[in-house]
């Protein structure tokens, strides 16, 4: 067990965790909402430090990050647990550890040090390490220690996150976290409270704070029928993103029935298409569709002259006209992002 950071002892044996915005008060012998940070005698421990449940080499486009080192590979790391309880989670078999008795404990099968993770990333020819699949905030110390070793190797670090980390956590991460894809799952407070078990305001504040700190961010919204698919709500999301920065790419992803939400159909293509137009009307420079195989809206176009710049098929880059630069070859407009 590895002693956690960002907590304070309360009374004789309780602790208050400040890692995420739940700010859990954790009694001795108990765990926080994430189910992976445990109070033992007035000290808070990260239960799965060094115990990943998933390792993989992915294209960076899978995160999805389209404006961050396109067509490169990212070494992906996850441990069990999450501070959200989303009923539509695509990775519920690892994220909902501790809440669902069907989930076993694969994280205890092997111990892998931060140095060993970086070694694997280097051997795999990866330009970045992504903390993903579950929620990286809850294994913050493990991610931090990996990142601090990775940076001198020229390897960037990426969070794929629900955006519920505290400002204190972001302040610590700003020197080693290069980019993040943040899920903005809805724009109604009651949806966040009922479906995710969290607060919308906390996520919105994290997005603003990451932008202020200079962390490159892209935002994903999984459009779920009957939950967040109204034109009004999609407009609210697009307008919020535009208010933070019109240069922030918005990925609009199609829902497929999963976990506890098998009672509704996949998102109609026309809903995703309408959301795309809403994003463009809000002034967003880069809007993408996801889980829509072969859709031309997964390509990158110049925001000014509409020149096709990066052509994609799924997670693969077919052609990249701005490789080695960040400007449109036709009109010379700057294309926002972190490119080679």
- Tell me roughly what share of residues is in helical segments: 10-25%
| CATH fold naming of the largest domain | TIM Barrel
CATH architecture of the largest domain, by name, is: Alpha-Beta Barrel
Q: CATH class of the largest domain, please?
A: Alpha Beta
Overall form: globular
Across the major sheet, the strand order is: 7-8-9-10-11-12-13-14
Tell me about the biggest sheet? Answer: 8 strands, mixed
Mean pLDDT: 95
Helix count?
8
Q: Helix-strand pattern, N to C?
A: EEEEEEEEHHEHEHEHHEHEHEEEE
Strand percent estimate: 15-25%
Overall SS class:
alpha/beta
- Quantity of strands, as a count: 17
Kindly, what is the distance between the CA atoms of the first and last residues, rounded to a whole number of angstroms?
39 Å
Are there runs of 5+ residues with pLDDT below 50, and where? none
Radius of gyration: 20 Å
How many structural units, i.e. domains? 2
CATH superfamily of the largest domain: Aldolase class I
Question: What can you see in these coordinates?
Answer:
With 340 residues, the chain is of the alpha/beta class. The chain folds into 2 domains: 2-46, no CATH class; 54-320, TIM Barrel (Alpha-Beta Barrel). The chain contains 8 helices and 17 strands. An 8-stranded mixed β-sheet has the order 7-8-9-10-11-12-13-14. A 3-stranded antiparallel β-sheet has the order 1-6-5, with no helix packed on it. α2 (114-123) crosses α3 and α7 (231-244) packs parallel to α8 (269-281).
Topology:
Elements: E1 2-3, E2 7-10, E3 14-17, E4 25-26, E5 37-40, E6 43-46, E7 54-59, E8 73-78, H1 92-95, H2 114-123, E9 128-131, H3 140-150, E10 156-161, H4 167-173, E11 179-183, H5 189-196, H6 200-213, E12 216-223, H7 231-244, E13 250-254, H8 269-281, E14 287-290, E15 300-301, E16 308-313, E17 316-320
Parallel strand pairs: 8-9, 9-10, 10-11, 11-12, 12-13, 13-14
Antiparallel strand pairs: 1-6, 2-3, 3-4, 5-6, 7-8, 15-16, 16-17
Helix pairs in contact: 2-3, 7-8
């Amino acid at each position: 067990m590895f002693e956690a950071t960002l907590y304070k002892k309360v009374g004789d044996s309780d602790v208050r965790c400040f890692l995420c915005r739940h700010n859990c008060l954790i009694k001795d012998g108990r765990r926080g909402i994430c189910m992976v940070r445990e109070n033992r005698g007035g000290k808070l421990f990260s239960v799965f430090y060094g115990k990943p449940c998933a390792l993989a080499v992915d294209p960076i486009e899978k995160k999805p990050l389209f404006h961050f080192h396109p067509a490169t590979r990212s070494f992906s790391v996850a441990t069990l647990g999450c501070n959200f309880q989303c009923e539509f989670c695509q990775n519920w078999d690892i994220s909902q550890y501790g809440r669902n008795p069907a989930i076993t404990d694969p994280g205890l099968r092997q111990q892998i040090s931060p140095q060993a993770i970086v070694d694997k990333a280097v051997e795999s020819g990866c330009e970045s390490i992504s903390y993903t699949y579950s929620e990286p905030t809850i294994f913050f110390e493990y991610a931090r220690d990996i990142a601090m070793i990775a940076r001198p190797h020229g390897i960037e670090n990426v969070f794929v996150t629900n955006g519920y980390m505290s400002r204190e956590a972001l302040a610590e991460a700003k020197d080693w976290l290069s980019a993040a894809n943040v899920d903005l799952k809805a724009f109604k407070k009651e949806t966040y409270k009922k479906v995710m078990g969290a607060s919308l305001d906390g996520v919105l504040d994290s997005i603003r704070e990451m932008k202020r700190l200079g962390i490159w961010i892209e935002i994903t919204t999984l459009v779920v029928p009957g939950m967040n698919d109204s034109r009004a709500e999609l407009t609210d999301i697009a307008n919020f993103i535009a208010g933070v920065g019109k240069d922030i790419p918005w990925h609009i992803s199609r829902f497929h029935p999963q976990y506890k939400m098998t009672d509704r159909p996949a998102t109609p293509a026309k809903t995703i298409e309408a959301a795309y137009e809403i994003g463009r009307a809000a002034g967003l420079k880069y809007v993408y569709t996801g889980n829509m195989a072969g859709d031309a809206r997964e390509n990158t176009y110049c925001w000014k002259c509409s020149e096709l710049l990066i052509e994609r098929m799924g997670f693969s880059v077919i052609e990249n006209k701005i490789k080695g630069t960040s400007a449109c070859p036709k009109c010379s407009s700057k294309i926002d992002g972190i490119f080679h």
